[in-house]
Amino acid sequence: MARFARLVPSGPTLLIIGVLAGLAFPALADGARPLMAAAIFVLVLGTFLQVDGTAFRRALQRPLVWLLLPALAMLASPLAVGLAARGAGFRPELIVALVLSVCAPPSSGTAAVARMLGFDATIPLAVTLLSMALAPVTVPLIAAGFAGLALDPLALATRLVFLVGGAGALALLLRRQAAARLVQHARIIDALVLASLLLFAIATMAGVRTQIEAQPAAAFTCVGLAFACNLALQLCGALLTPGNLAARLTSGLVLGNRNVGLVWSAMGAAVSPMTALFFAATQFPIYMTPRLIEMLVRRERKENASP
Q1: Membrane-spanning residues where (predicted)?
Q2: CATH architecture classification, 7-296
Q3: CA dihedral 272, 33, 128, 146 (to 10 degrees)
Q4: Across the strands, what pairs with 258?
């Protein structure tokens, strides 16, 4: 793990490699699939351990964090995407898939990706937690309104409590009992978080190659729409957020990258083939756009450093 820690600066590139490896080697993705829950838990735990408590509490006092971004993520974004898709004349099944993917809370790995890019991870972590608290209310309402689906709010809340509550409680215990060691082994924790992200990226490709081969035209349509939707939301987040480029790009990550797995699992057998295909397609921009963001940040830093 200490050797793997040297690869943390190359995290965005490794995530792309992970997605492509899972797509190229279906057996690898299938083997990683049962480890997804453990990977998410380690990912959330590692993020909790690395975020400064004082900075986190300070972030929660900002209206941008406790009001604007959660409202944009959980209400404005899915409604805007749904209305735009209807206005563009998309097929009903594509509209449903788009809205359901965007009504999900921000991805659990957003804070970890932000930290990997050198951004402040406290804001995405705070917004993600607040959005998850809203999810049992907003997700069933939007799913019922746009797709006519009846999702169980209690089941959603239970999943989120186990995920966030368990990781949060363990992180609090570790901070109290071994704070000095956590600081000493910060690079190892970063490596564990990256390993979890990489494992999750590989696992999300389970079954995707088969779907692409069975419906190539639909698959490419879904991938194109997934990239367009993700980038549009990231651009909105960047334009609507005050501050420097890093702060604006962080908000973009929060709005663009969504935990579709939460909605996917809540739907169960009600997931249509098109919705499942689109949900799988959303993983491509989630794990590929951080490399693009890294390039933008490096370019800005180089321009600022030049005389």
Answers
A1: 12-29, 35-52, 64-88, 94-114, 126-150, 156-174, 186-206, 218-240, 261-281
A2: Up-down Bundle (1.20)
A3: 0
A4: 106
